[in-house]
Write a structure and sequence with these properties.
The structure holds 4 protein chains of 4 kinds. By secondary structure, chain A is α/β, with parallel strands linked by helices. Chain A is built from 8 helices and 22 strands. Chain A has 3 domains: about 170 residues, FAD/NAD(P)-binding domain, CATH 3.50.50; about 55 residues, no CATH class; about 160 residues, FAD/NAD(P)-binding domain (3-Layer(bba) Sandwich). In chain A, strand 14, helix 6 and strand 15 form a beta-alpha-beta unit. In chain A, helix 1 runs parallel beside helix 2 and helix 5 runs parallel beside helix 6. In chain B, helix 1 links the parallel strand 1 and strand 2. In chain B, helix 2 crosses helix 4. Chain B is globular and about 55 Å long. The two termini of chain B are about 30 Å apart. In chain D, helix 6 runs antiparallel to helix 17. Chain D has 22 helices and 31 strands. Chain D is of the alpha/beta class. The chains are: A alpha/beta, B alpha/beta, C mainly alpha, D alpha/beta.
Chain lengths: ~425, ~300, ~210, ~750
C-alpha cells in the first residue's frame, strides 16, 4: 500500500510534464515538500516526444537529463506515476487530495535490465509514438524514461505473457498482484499542470486526415524525425515508405477556427518552421517545402529563426488556408487553395502533408474538482477565486516550452506564498 | 407499426409534367412500402430556391417560405415538414432559422402573411426525405423491405451540395458523406465509397445561365463514376439529377466523350428493390434509361 | 434606381464597408473576414472568378465600391455552400454573395447581359406570376433572353434535351398555357406585395 | 574534517555482470591493486537488502569512501545516494557489458575494460573528500528589485507575499515605469466559459490598466521599502551576502545587504526619429503608439483630437512593425510582440468615442497568440477596426491631413489612404547596462586596433544599471540584440551572474501581462538563490552541490586565467591579484580548475588528482599487444548519458576506450592530456556540448573555452613527436546514441592505421 507523507504545508503538483516538473523542482529546491502526480508511467510529458526544440534546434532530452537528475537527488520531492487526481476538497492552505494509482505491475526492484520485455510476446500500438510503431506488453516507455522502471500493459495481465514476464525477472520486481489503489493526503496549495493534447485531426474533414494516409499531424511528424523514433529518424511517408521530400505544412489546423478551436495555439508556426528544417536538412536541395499560413506568428526574438528559415530557397511560404486535400492515384496528397497575396490558385501535389495541429487544453472544464475560473477555450485563468490552485504551463494558455517553464516557475512561487502563510500562521 | 406522418412540401419541379415529376412518383411508391404518409401542404408556393436572390430581396424571399410554413402549421399541425427537393428543404429550413434568429424579420414576415390571414408562430423540424429514411426509419428497417436486391449493380452515390451542406444528414461529414453508399449496400447493390466526386457541385442553377462552366463540372462527376466502373449514379437532389443526366449529349459533343450514364433517385432504387414495377419506380422518367434497373423491375 | 445609388454614395462617402454592413443581407459579417482564403479555394467556379469571395471582402474594406458592385464575380455563386462550412470565422459567404448581387441589382449596377443576373431575375418574375415556377416559360425566356436570334440557336442546341424531357414526361407543352399555380393567388400576391413594401421601406430608411 | 579514510568496495553482480565478468578477479583488483580492505559482492546491490548492507557499514563507521561497482552513476541514484560519504561508481553495466557483445572472442577485452573501471573507481574515491559548506553565508532574506515599472512592482509584491522583505529601487520620482501612461490595457483574459461561440459578442475589451492600484499596493506593503529617484552606485558580494549602495537624490546613499537580486529595468520606447519616411518629427499628427497612449489618457474617453489643429480625428492609420522586423540600419531586427494587440486596443479607443472614425491597421503578420489574443483580434474586428495586410512605404502631408502610401498585399497594388492621424507601432528597446564583455574586450584586447574597436563599442554603451563590482564587468551579460539571458529553452531564468535574475522586457520583448508573469518567476528564483546560498549549496545546474573551488595560494602565479575564464564572472581578484572565489557565485563547473596552468585549483570531490589518478590507474598494455588505450573525457550532462543510452540500445563501443565523466569540458586540465599521453595512451577523445551561438553547454562558455585551449594542444603533440590526430575534440549531443560510440571506434581504427603510442613502459 502506497503511503504519502504530506501536510498542509505540502505542495501538490498535478502533471509531470515540463511545466509540472519545473514547478515541482523549483519549489522542492526552495525547501518545500512537494508531491508530483503524473498520469503517465514516466515524467516529461509531451516534450519527451519531441525531437528538437525551436528556435535553437536543441534536444529536449538534454534539459530532461538535468531535470531528472534534479528529481532523483531531491529528498523533498515525492513522485507518483500512473496517478491521477480524482478528488480535491478543502480550501486554500488546507486541501485534501484523492489520487488514484493504477498498477504498474513492476515494483521499485526493477533494474530496467529488459529481460521481461524480451520474454513477453504480445505487441501493442506504441502510444509514445502516437501509434506509429509497436511496443511489447512489458516495456520501458522510452529509453530515458524516469522512473527507469518497466511497465506491464494491463492487457497482458492474466495472460501467459504476464507469467513469462514474471518468470524472466531475476529481481522479483514483477508483482502481478498489484491492484488499483486510492490514496488521500493533505496539501496547502495545488499547481495544476495537466498540459495539452493535440486536437483530433480527423475532425478537420477537408484535410482528409482520416482518409489520406500521407496526411499526418505535426506531433506524429516529430516522431518520424526522431532518430530514436519508429522510422529511425527517416522522413518517410506512411502509405509506401517512400522518402517525403516534398512536404506541405498547413498552419492553423484546428486553431483559429470557429469550427474547431477558437484560440491561436501559438506554437504551431514555430513548430512548422522547425520541422521545415528537418526536411531541408534531410534532403538538402531535393527538399521542397511549402508552408501554408494565415499569419506567421514568429513573435519577439523568434523572428531571428523565421529569417534564418526564410533564407532557405527550398522553403516557400504561401499566405493561404488551403481549402482541401485530395489524394491522387499514387497517394500523393494534392493541396488545393488560393494564395491570397495577389490571388493565385494552386493545386499542389506533395509527398506528405503535415497538419500543424492545434493545442487543446487537457483541463477537464466540466469536471474540475474545485470551483475555478476556466475560460471558453478551457484554459485556467489566474484569479483570486481559484484559492490555492494555480495553473502552470499549457493549463493556463497555449504556450511553448520556454514560456511553460517560465510560467511554471511563477506558479511555484504562488504556491510557496500559500504554504509560507500557513507556516507563519502556525509558528 | 404505426404509419409515420409528415407535412409534405413537394416543390415546383416535382409537379405533374415538371422536370422531376418522376422523383415524386418514385417517392410516393417508396413511401407506400415504408408506410410513410405524406400530407401535402395545401396550396404551397415556390421557395425561390437559391436563385431567387436577384429579384427577391431578403424579406420577400423569406416570406415565400414563411407562407408555406404557416400553411403547414395551420393544416398539418404538429407534423415535421419534409421536402424531397434539396433546394426546397434548404430554403425552407434556412428561412425558418433566419426568421427565428431575427425577431424583427419574423414580425415583418407575419405582417405580410396577415394580408392573407396567415401567421407563423412555431418552429418545426424541417427534414429532407433522406433524413426521414436514415434518421427516422433507419437502415435496418429500410433493408428489411428489400424484395429484389440490386445485386451486381455498381452505383456511384452522388450526394451533391445542398442535401449535404450546410446542414446535411446527422453524423455525416460535409466532405465525405457515406449515407448513399450505405443505402446502396442496404438495397443489395455495390457502392463506391471512395467515389471522389460525391460532393462536387454540378453548377446548380448556373446550368442554365452558365452552361459551359456547369457542364465542365458535370463531366468530372460522370467521368469519375465511369472510372470506378459505375453502372449508374444515384442522387437525392432534383437539380443534381437533372444537370448530371440531361446534358450528357451536349457534353459528348463538346468533349468528344461517349457518356450514357443513367442518373436515378434513391427513391427509384428503393422502389425497384422493394419489388415494384418500372412504372411505379418511374423508370420511364429517365432520359437515359437505367437498363439494369429495368431488368430487375421486369422480373 | 440610379438615384438610390447616388443617395447611397452620398450617405456613405468612401465608407463602403459601412454601406455593406447596413444594406447588404448578412453584410455585417464582412468585417470579420481574416483573409485566410479558404472560401476562394473552395469555390467550384473559383477559377472563373475575377475576384473570389475573400478578395471581394478585402475590396469592400478598401472601398472599391464600383468594382465590387459592378463585378461579374458576385453572380458566380452556385450556392454549393462549400465556403460556408469551411470558413474558420463562419461567415455566411453564400448569402453575402447573394446579398451583394441583389444590392447591385437594386442600385442598377449589374453588368450588361450578366446571364445569371438575368436568369435569376426571370426566375423570380416567373414564380411571382402564379406562385409556382413555370419551367417551360422559364426555359423559353431563358433561351430568348439575349434576343430572338441567339434564342433560336440556344433552343436548337437544347432541342434534344427538350425532346428527352418531353418523352420522359418531365416537360409539359401545356404549361405554355396556364400551368401550375397557387389557388389563393390573390392572397399570395398581397402577401408578397406587403413583403416588398416592408423591404423597400427598410432600404429607404438606410438610404435616406 | 580530518576523519580517517575507511575504504569500502561493493560489487553488484546483477543485470548480467556476474554472468559476463569474472567478478572474483574484479574483487582481487580492488583489494590487491586498489588496496581496498574489503569488497562485498551482492546479486542486487540496489535492492533494499543491498542498500542496507552498505548503510550498515557506513553506520558502523566501516565505510567513509565507497567504491560502488555496478550500473552507471546515472542509474539507481536514489538507492546509492548515501549521505556524508565519498562515493565513486564503476560503470560495469552500461559502460562495459552492455557496450560489448557477449561472444567468447570478446570476453578477454571486456574483462580488461571492467578491470580498469574498478581500478579507476578505486583511485578516484581515494582522492575525494566529502564536501561541506564553507559557512561563508548565513540566510539573508532581503531581495533587491531594480526597476519601478510594472515588472519590478510585481516582483516586489510577489516576493513580499512569500514573506521576504524587498527593497525596490526606482530611477524615477514615481513608480509605474514605461507603462504608467497607459489609458487602458489589452485584456488579460479570454472570453468567459459562458460566452456563446456565436457572433463574437461579449469578448473582453480594453480594460483598466490597474497600475495606479498596483502602485498603492506597493507603497502600502510593509515588507517593501521603495527608493525613488535612486540608482545603484555599487553592487558587490555574492548570493546571500550582496551589498548594494543605493544613491538617492534625496538624502544620503544607503548601503543594504541582500540575498539575491531581480533586475526589472523594462524597456525604452524605440526612437521614432529614425523613421523620417513615416513623417515622424515632421508633423505632430504622426505619433508613436506610446505617445498615442498619453493622448488617449489626456482625452480620458472624450474625442481624440489631432495634435496639429485640434480637429476631432475621423480617420486614423496604424502602421505595424514600424522600425521593426527589419534589417535596415537603425531598425530593430526583432518583433516586439506587444504591438499588434496594442494597436487593436488603440484603434478601439477611436471607435468607442466616435463610431464614424475609420481605423485601419496596416499589418504584415497579425500576431495575437493564445486564447486571449485571438479573442481580442475578433473583438477589434467586431468593433469595425479595418485590418489591411499592407506594407507602408511613406507618410506624406496632404493639405491639413496625411496620406499613407502603402502596398496592399492582398489586392496586390500600390495604393494610398488619407487620414487625420498616423500611429506608428514602434517597438521595445531593452533597458540594460553595457554588455560586460564589451568592457572586458577593452582590457583584454591584444592589439591596439582591437582595443580601439572595443573602445568604440563601449563608448556607445548605455550607463550601468547594477554597477557590479565584478572582475567581469558591471552588468549582466547580453545574449542578442541587447537582451539578457537565458538562452536555455528549459531554464528560462538562467543568467550568468549567479543570484541576479532578469525579469520582463530586459529578457525579450513582451507585453504587460507576460512581463508580470515573468516577474513572478524571477522572484521565485531570487528567493531560491538566497535560500540555497544560506545552505552553501550550488544552484542550477549542479543544484545542491556543496563542493566549491579552493586553491593553493603558495602555488598560484596570479596569472588571472581563472578570473578571466569563469563563465559566471564568479571570481574576483584581491589586491595582490589572487583569485577570490565567492563560492555562492560559483556554479561548480570547474572551468577555473581547467584554466589553471599550475594546477592549484580543486574541489573537494573533483580535482586534478581525482581525475589524474583514474587516468594513471588504467593498465596500459605494451606496444605490441595490439591493445591500444583511448581516454575519453566526456561531459556528464550530454556525452556521458549518450554513451550510456547507446549501450542500453545495444550499440557497440571499442573495448579499448576508458571513459571519464567530467563536470564540463571547461574543467579539463591540459595536464590530463599531456600526462595521459606521457603514460602511453594512444588516443584521447574529448566530448563536450555544442558551443556556437546556439550553445548547449550548461555552463555557457565551458565547452567553448575548452575548445580554445585544446586548439593549441597540437603543438604539444608535435613536440612529443606524436600525430596531432591522436587528440580530438567533438561536440556531442545527448541524442548522439549512434554517433558517440562511432567517434570512439573511429579513434581506435585510426590508431590501427597510425600505430600505437611510443610512450609505453
Amino acid at each position: 500500500m502506497t503511503a504519502v507523507v504530506a501536510t498542509n504545508e505540502t505542495i501538490l503538483v498535478v502533471g509531470g510534464g515540463i511545466s509540472g516538473m519545473t514547478a515541482a523542482l523549483e519549489a522542492a529546491e526552495t525547501g518545500k515538500r512537494v508531491v508530483l502526480v503524473e498520469k503517465r508511467p514516466y515524467l516529461g510529458g509531451r516534450v519527451t516526444q519531441l525531437y528538437k526544440y525551436f528556435p535553437k534546434l536543441c534536444f529536449p532530452t538534454c534539459g530532461l537529463e538535468i531535470n531528472q537528475r534534479r528529481a532523483k537527488m531531491n529528498p523533498n520531492l515525492t513522485i507518483l506515476t500512473l496517478a491521477e487526481v480524482t478528488g480535491l476538497t478543502g480550501s486554500e492552505g488546507d486541501y485534501t487530495a484523492t489520487v488514484k494509482l493504477s498498477p504498474r505491475y513492476v515494483n521499485e526492484r526493477c533494474t530496467a535490465c529488459g529481460d521481461c520485455g524480451t520474454a513477453v510476446e504480445a505487441e501493442f500500438d506504441d502510444d509514445y509514438n502516437y501509434g506509429l510503431g509497436k511496443r511489447k506488453g512489458a516495456y520501458l516507455p522510452y529509453r530515458m524514461a524516469h522512473p527507469a522502471r518497466y511497465v506491464l500493459d494491463p492487457a497482458i495481465i492474466g495472460t501467459p505473457d504476464a507469467d513469462k514476464a514474471k518468470a524472466a525477472c531475476k529481481y522479483d520486481a514483477i508483482d502481478l498482484e498489484m491492484r488499483e489503489e486510492t490514496v488521500e493526503f493533505r496539501c496547502g496549495a495545488v499547481i495544476w499542470a495537466t498540459g495539452w493534447k493535440p486536437y483530433d485531426a480527423a475532425k478537420i474533414q477537408p484535410y482528409g486526415y482520416d482518409r489520406i494516409a500521407n496526411v499526418i499531424t505535426s506531433v506524429e511528424f516529430e516522431r518520424l524525425a526522431d532518430p530514436n523514433g519508429p522510422t529511425g529518424g527517416k522522413l518517410v511517408r506512411p502509405s509506401d515508405g517512400r522518402e517525403a521530400k516534398k512536404v506541405a505544412f498547413i498552419q492553423c489546423a484546428g486553431s483559429r477556427d470557429r469550427n474547431h478551436l477558437l484560440h491561436c495555439s501559438r506554437i504551431c508556426c514555430m513548430a512548422s518552421l522547425k520541422q521545415a528544417t528537418y526536411v531541408a536538412d534531410a534532403f538538402a536541395d531535393d527538399a521542397e517545402i511549402n508552408i501554408y499560413y494565415i499569419d506567421l506568428r514568429a513573435i519577439d526574438r523568434f523572428e531571428d529563426f523565421y529569417n534564418k528559415v526564410r533564407a532557405n530557397q527550398n522553403i516557400k511560404f504561401i499566405k493561404s488556408k488551403p481549402a482541401s486535400i485530395v489524394a491522387d492515384k499514387d497517394g500523393n496528397p494534392i493541396v488545393h487553395g488560393v494564395d491570397t497575396e495577389g490571388y493565385n490558385r494552386f493545386a499542389e501535389p506533395h509527398d506528405l502533408v503535415v497538419l500543424a495541429i492545434g493545442m487543446e487544453p487537457a483541463v477537464d472544464k466540466d469536471a474540475f474538482p474545485v470551483s475555478i475560473v476556466i475560460n471558453r477555450e478551457g484554459f485556467i485563468e489566474a484569479s483570486p477565486e481559484n484559492g490555492g490552485v494555480f495553473a502552470a504551463g499549457c493549463a493556463s494558455d497555449a504556450l511553448d516550452v520556454n514560456r511553460s517553464a517560465q510560467h511554471a516557475t511563477g506558479a511555484a512561487l504562488r504556491a510557496i506564498q500559500v504554504v509560507n502563510r500557513v507556516a507563519r500562521a502556525e509558528v | 407499426m404505426a404509419k409515420r406522418q409528415y407535412s409534405f412540401y413537394p416543390g415546383c419541379s416535382s409537379q405533374k409534367g415538371a422536370s422531376s415529376s418522376n422523383y415524386l412518383i418514385s417517392v410516393q411508391t417508396m413511401c407506400e412500402e415504408l408506410e410513410v404518409q405524406l400530407n401535402e401542404i395545401p396550396d404551397w408556393n415556390c421557395c425561390a430556391a437559391s436563385i431567387g436572390y436577384a429579384g427577391g430581396g431578403e424579406l420577400p424571399r423569406l416570406t415565400l417560405s414563411a407562407r408555406n410554413l404557416a400553411l403547414s402549421e395551420q393544416h398539418n399541425p404538429g407534423q415535421d415538414v419534409v421536402a424531397t427537393c434539396a433546394a426546397c428543404w434548404l430554403s425552407t429550413r434556412e428561412a425558418q432559422e433566419r426568421l427565428h434568429e431575427d425577431q424583427s424579420l419574423l414580425a415583418e414576415a407575419n405582417t405580410a402573411l396577415a394580408e392573407a390571414g396567415l401567421k407563423l408562430t412555431k418552429e418545426m423540424p424541417i427534414k429532407h426525405m433522406a433524413e426521414v429514411l436514415i434518421e427516422d426509419i433507419g437502415y435496418a428497417e429500410l433493408g428489411a423491405k428489400v424484395k429484389r436486391p440490386l445485386a451486381g449493380i455498381k452505383i456511384a452515390g452522388y450526394v451533391g451540395c445542398q442535401t449535404n451542406r450546410p446542414f446535411g444528414i446527422a453524423g455525416e461529414s460535409f466532405e465525405n458523406p457515406k449515407y448513399l453508399d450505405q443505402l446502396v449496400e442496404t438495397l443489395g447493390g455495390d457502392s463506391i465509397p471512395d467515389y471522389e466526386k460525391k460532393v462536387q457541385c454540378c453548377g446548380g442553377a448556373l446550368a442554365f445561365s452558365e452552361p459551359e462552366k456547369s457542364q465542365e463540372m458535370v463531366k468530372g462527376i460522370i467521368e469519375a463514376a465511369y472510372d470506378h466502373g459505375a453502372d449508374l449514379i444515384v442522387t437525392p437532389c432534383p437539380v443534381c439529377q437533372m444537370n448530371v443526366e440531361v446534358y450528357q449529349d451536349q457534353i459528348n459533343q463538346t468533349y468528344g466523350t461517349q457518356f450514357k450514364m443513367p442518373v436515378v433517385y434513391y427513391s427509384t432504387l428503393m422502389a425497384v428493390a422493394y419489388g415494384r414495377s418500372a412504372k411505379d419506380a418511374a423508370l420511364n422518367g429517365q432520359v437515359i434509361p437505367a437498363k439494369k434497373l429495368e431488368a430487375i423491375a421486369g422480373k | 434606381m440610379g438615384d438610390l445609388n447616388t443617395a447611397m454614395i452620398e450617405k456613405y462617402r468612401n465608407r463602403f464597408l459601412k454601406e455593406v454592413e447596413a444594406n447588404v443581407e448578412e453584410g455585417e459579417w464582412v468585417k470579420m473576414c481574416m483573409q485566410c482564403g479558404v472560401c476562394s479555394g473552395s469555390c467550384p467556379l473559383g477559377k472563373f472568378w475575377e475576384h473570389p469571395p475573400q478578395e471581394i471582402f478585402m475590396m469592400i474594406r478598401a472601398g472599391k465600391r464600383d468594382e465590387v458592385l459592378s463585378s461579374e464575380s458576385v453572380w458566380m455563386c452556385t450556392s454549393c455552400y462549400n465556403c460556408i462550412v469551411r470558413c474558420p470565422r463562419e461567415l455566411p459567404i453564400t448569402h453575402i454573395m447573394h446579398g451583394l448581387a441583389h444590392y447591385a441589382k437594386r442600385l442598377g449596377l449589374v453588368p450588361k447581359n450578366q446571364p445569371t443576373a438575368k436568369f435569376a431575375q426571370m426566375f423570380w418574375d416567373n414564380l411571382m406570376v402564379k406562385g409556382r415556377v413555370n419551367e417551360l416559360k422559364l426555359g423559353l425566356n431563358l433561351y430568348f433572353m439575349n434576343g430572338i436570334g441567339d434564342g433560336v440557336k440556344v433552343a436548337l442546341k437544347n432541342q434534344k434535351i427538350g425532346l428527352g424531357m418531353l418523352k420522359s414526361k418531365r416537360m409539359n407543352p401545356l404549361e405554355a398555357v396556364g400551368g401550375h399555380a397557387v389557388k389563393d393567388l390573390k392572397g399570395f400576391h398581397a402577401v408578397l406585395k406587403k413583403a416588398q413594401e416592408l423591404e423597400d421601406k427598410r432600404l429607404a430608411d438606410h438610404g435616406a | 574534517m580530518a576523519v580517517e579514510k575507511k575504504l569500502a568496495g561493493y560489487l553488484c553482480t546483477g543485470c548480467g555482470i556476474g554472468e559476463r565478468l569474472d567478478t572474483s578477479q574484479l574483487v582481487n583488483i580492488a583489494t590487491r591493486e586498489g588496496k581496498f580492505p574489503s569488497v562485498k559482492q551482492h546479486a542486487m546491490l540496489c535492492s533494499p537488502e543491498g542498500v542496507k548492507l552498505i548503510q550498515d557499514d557506513i553506520d558502523a563507521g566501516e565505510a567513509t569512501h565507497l567504491m560502488i561497482a555496478g550500473c552507471s552513476r546515472r542509474s539507481k541514484v536514489e538507492a546509492f545516494s548515501f549521505r556524508n560519504v565519498a562515493i565513486s561508481r564503476a560503470n560495469l553495466r552500461e559502460g562495459v557489458i552492455w557496450a560489448r557483445p557477449d561472444t567468447p572472442e570478446n570476453t578477454e577485452t571486456t574483462q580488461e575494460m571492467a578491470d580498469d573501471y574498478i581500478r579507476m573507481a578505486c583511485a578516484e574515491v581515494k582522492f575525494m573528500t566529502v564536501p561541506t559548506p564553507s559557512g561563508e553565508q548565513e540566510l539573508n532574506k532581503n531581495i533587491l528589485v531594480v526597476g519601478g515599472g510594472v515588472t519590478g512592482m510585481t516582483a516586489a509584491l510577489e516576493t513580499a507575499a512569500a514573506g521576504y522583505p524587498v527593497h525596490l529601487v526606482c530611477d524615477e520620482d514615481v513608480l509605474g515605469g514605461v507603462w504608467k501612461d497607459l489609458y487602458k490595457r489589452v485584456p488579460f483574459r479570454a472570453a468567459a466559459s459562458d460566452v456563446p461561440n456565436g457572433r463574437d459578442v461579449d469578448l473582453p475589451g480594453p480594460e483598466d490598466p490597474g497600475i495606479a492600484d498596483m502602485i498603492e499596493r506597493v507603497l502600502a506593503n510593509e515588507r517593501i521599502t521603495v527608493h525613488l529617484n535612486a540608482k545603484l552606485s555599487k553592487t558587490s558580494g555574492a548570493p546571500g551576502r550582496f551589498s548594494a549602495d543605493i544613491d538617492r537624490s534625496s538624502g544620503p546613499t544607503v548601503t543594504e545587504n541582500f540575498g539575491a537580486i531581480v533586475q526589472a529595468s523594462d524597456f525604452k520606447p524605440y526612437d521614432a526619429n529614425r523613421l523620417p519616411e513615416f513623417g515622424y518629427g515632421k508633423t505632430p499628427d504622426v505619433l508613436t503608439n506610446f505617445e498615442l497612449e498619453r493622448l488617449a489618457k489626456a482625452a480620458n474617453g472624450g474625442p481624440l483630437k489631432r495634435p496639429s489643429d485640434g480637429k476631432v480625428v475621423e480617420s486614423v492609420a496604424f502602421i505595424q512593425c514600424a522600425g521593426q522586423r527589419s534589417d535596415k540600419e537603425g531598425h530593430l531586427p526583432y518583433c516586439s510582440g506587444f504591438c499588434c494587440t496594442e494597436s487593436i486596443k488603440q484603434a478601439m479607443y477611436f471607435r468607442e468615442q466616435n463610431p464614424d472614425c475609420d481605423t485601419t491597421i496596416l499589418f504584415d503578420d497579425l500576431r495575437t497568440p493564445g486564447a486571449a489574443g485571438e479573442d481580442f483580434y475578433r473583438c477589434g474586428q467586431q468593433a469595425m477596426v479595418t485590418f489591411t495586410k499592407g506594407q507602408a512605404s511613406a507618410v506624406v502631408q496632404n493639405g491639413k491631413g496625411l496620406k499613407v502610401q502603402f502596398k496592399d498585399l492582398i489586392l496586390n497594388e500600390d495604393t494610398e489612404m488619407d487620414c487625420d492621424l498616423v500611429v506608428l507601432a514602434t517597438g521595445q528597446v531593452p533597458n540594460n547596462g553595457p554588455d560586460p564583455y564589451a568592457q572586458l574586450a577593452v582590457d583584454e584586447a591584444e592589439s591596439e586596433e582591437e582595443k580601439e574597436a572595443a573602445r568604440q563599442k563601449l563608448a556607445v554603451a548605455p550607463p550601468s544599471i547594477l554597477n557590479l563590482d565584478y572582475r567581469q564587468g558591471t552588468d549582466l551579460p547580453q545574449l542578442k540584440h541587447g537582451f539578457l539571458d537565458s538562452h536555455f529553452i528549459c531554464f528560462p531564468y538562467e543568467t550568468r551572474r549567479t543570484g541576479i535574475y532578469a525579469a520582463g522586457p530586459v529578457r525579450r520583448p513582451m507585453d504587460m501581462k507576460q512581463a508580470m508573469e515573468d516577474a513572478v518567476g524571477a522572484a521565485m528564483k531570487a528567493i531560491q538563490a538566497a535560500e540555497s546560498a544560506a545552505q552553501g549549496a550550488a544552484v542550477h545546474p549542479r543544484v545542491g552541490d556543496l563542493s566549491y573551488p579552493s586553491f593553493r595560494k603558495e602555488g598560484c602565479t596570479q596569472c588571472k586565467r581563472c578570473t578571466v575564464e569563469c563563465p559566471f564572472g564568479a571570481i574576483n581578484e584581491d589586491e595582490q591579484r589572487y583569485p577570490v572565489f565567492n563560492e555562492s557565485r560559483c556554479r561548480r563547473c570547474g572551468t577555473c580548475m581547467g584554466a589553471c596552468p599550475v594546477r592549484v585549483i580543486s574541489f573537494e570531490n573533483y580535482s586534478i588528482d581525482s581525475v589524474n589518478q583514474q587516468i594513471k590507474a588504467v593498465d596500459i598494455p605494451d606496444e605490441f599487444s595490439e591493445k591500444p588505450r583511448i581516454l575519453c573525457l566526456a561531459c556528464e550532462n550530454d556525452a556521458y548519458p549518450a554513451l550510456d543510452m547507446a549501450a542500453q540500445a545495444g550499440i557497440e563501443t571499442t573495448p579499448f576506450v576508458r571513459v571519464v565523466p567530467v563536470r564540463c569540458l571547461g574543467s579539463v586540465s591540459l595536464s590530463w592530456i599531456t600526462d595521459s599521453l606521457n603514460s602511453g595512451y594512444d588516443g584521447i577523445v574529448l566530448m563536450g556540448c555544442r558551443r556556437d551561438e546556439d550553445y548547449q553547454c550548461h555552463f555557457v562558455r565551458g565547452s567553448a573555452i575548452a575548445a580554445e585551449r585544446l586548439s593549441k594542444v597540437g603543438d604539444t603533440l608535435t613536440q612529443l613527436n606524436l600525430e596531432p590526430e591522436r587528440v580530438v575534440v567533438h561536440e556531442v549531443a545527448i541524442t548522439d546514441l549512434a554517433r558517440a560510440p562511432r567517434l570512439l571506434n573511429e579513434m581506435a581504427e585510426m590508431i590501427g592505421k597510425i600505430g600505437m603510442s611510443p610512450f609505453k613502459f
